[in-house]
Design brief:
By secondary structure, the chain is an all-beta fold. It has a domain of 202 residues: Immunoglobulin-like. The protein is built from two helices and 16 strands. Strands 8, 9, 10, 11, 14, 15 and 16 form a seven-stranded antiparallel sheet that branches. A five-stranded antiparallel sheet has the order 5-6-7-13-12. The longest helix is centred in the middle third of the chain and has 6 residues. It starts with 11 loop residues before the first strand and ends with a strand.
């Protein structure tokens, strides 16, 4: 007779081949009195209760509920119900759980490590990107996530080189202007703006140009809610900073904006000038016009990167850190609005009709009834 397991009763005959290391005969089964720490089911058709059956050859990935002795690679162990939350193969090289119709369950090209989906499809089809249920466009910080839900998202990180091309996300927000400029269209015109963002920066892509004495200005409300009480500057004509090339142009005579729109920051460039992030330059950059005492002396804010180019497709690309725009971290769900104008060197002449978004027919350049509003 073969020896019996310490603390266990002698085995009784059964009808299942014994795959364990205690061979009591051609057919046997260990009685339910076995005691141990874990259950692998390597030699019984129906396991003893969890925690009361153990073998030295227990497979660590066993589900421990109902075991069927099916050959899994080199190991005789496969569960009817695969309880592993990470969908990793059961001990062997091939996952043969009956509910698993595919080859290897981790065969997705980019499978999320903690895959919490139920593994119930009849066919396990590899996917390009496996998106978890909590993936939302507004809070998605993974730059490489190209799931269908994000296909038209404005999230992206365009290269700031003055060329608005394929590096911009397909879903970037945009507004256009088709009105012919009243100031030499070849030298002073706006045709479109694109807006995108990522976790750290806001991106603006402006197709258009101005001659050396004029400026492109983007007026930004960093907490815009239509119809609410505005917190920024509600009459740009009240700005009086005339010292500095760009500052002088910002102090222009825009007198009407939508209810709830108050200008906090203005980005601009005189004569298509460019700058690096650390630069504080007289004729290009970001200005805080709403801080205490700033109406007559704008606060120059570093951090924005600007690239403007001329030629057949003139444009300016800008990236602005959220920390520069908000003076710290952006709110959890920021709400912004903006509009674009061309002004002359000191903001005194707004007879140019170039606007983004394009305004209604007949609106004077001093009016900004339409703004581009968005929530990153």
């Amino acid at each position: 007779m073969a020896a019996i397991v310490a603390g266990c009763a002698e085995a009784a005959p059964s009808t299942v081949f014994d795959a364990g290391d205690l061979d009591l005969g051609s057919f046997d089964v260990v009685s339910t009195g076995e005691v141990g720490a874990r259950d692998s089911g390597t030699d019984v058709a129906v396991d003893a209760p969890t925690g009361t059956d153990v073998r030295s050859d227990d497979a660590p990935a066993d589900a421990g509920v109902v075991d069927v002795p099916v050959v899994d690679g080199s190991t005789v162990d496969a569960a009817v119900v695969d309880a592993s939350v990470t969908d990793s193969p059961d001990a062997g090289s091939v996952d043969v759980a009956p509910v698993d119709a595919g080859a290897l369950d981790s065969g997705s090209v980019s499978d999320v490590p903690a895959d919490v989906r139920a593994d119930v499809p009849a066919v396990d089809v590899p996917v390009v990107v496996d998106v978890v249920a909590v993936d939302a466009p507004g809070s998605d910080a993974v730059a490489t996530d190209v799931a269908a839900a994000d296909a038209a998202s404005p999230r992206g990180t365009p290269v700031i080189d003055g060329v608005i091309g394929a590096d911009w996300p397909a879903g970037a927000l945009s507004e256009t202007n088709t009105v012919v400029s009243t100031w030499n269209p070849a030298l002073n015109a706006l045709s479109s703006i694109r807006v995108a963002w990522d976790a750290t920066r806001l991106y603006l892509g402006i197709r258009g140009t101005v001659e050396a004495t004029n400026a492109i200005l983007v007026f930004i409300d960093r907490d815009y809610v239509a119809g609410s009480t505005a917190t920024g500057v509600t009459s740009i004509a009240s700005l009086t900073d005339g010292v500095g090339s760009l500052d002088n142009a910002v102090s222009c005579n825009v007198t009407e904006m939508p209810v709830g729109f108050g200008v906090d920051m203005v980005w601009g460039t005189r004569g298509m000038q460019t700058k690096a992030a650390a630069d504080l330059i007289d004729n290009v950059g970001l200005r805080n016009v709403s801080c205490s005492g700033c109406a007559g002396n704008f606060n120059w804010v570093a951090g924005d990167v600007v690239a403007c180019v001329g030629g057949a497709t003139p444009a300016c690309e800008v990236s602005i850190p959220w920390t520069a725009l908000y003076g710290g971290a952006a709110p959890p769900v920021p709400s912004l609005g903006l509009f674009v104008r061309i002004t002359n060197m000191d903001g005194s002449d707004l007879s140019n009709n170039q606007c983004l978004p394009q305004q209604a027919s007949g609106d004077a350049p001093t009016v900004a009834r339409r703004v581009l509003a968005f929530m990153p």
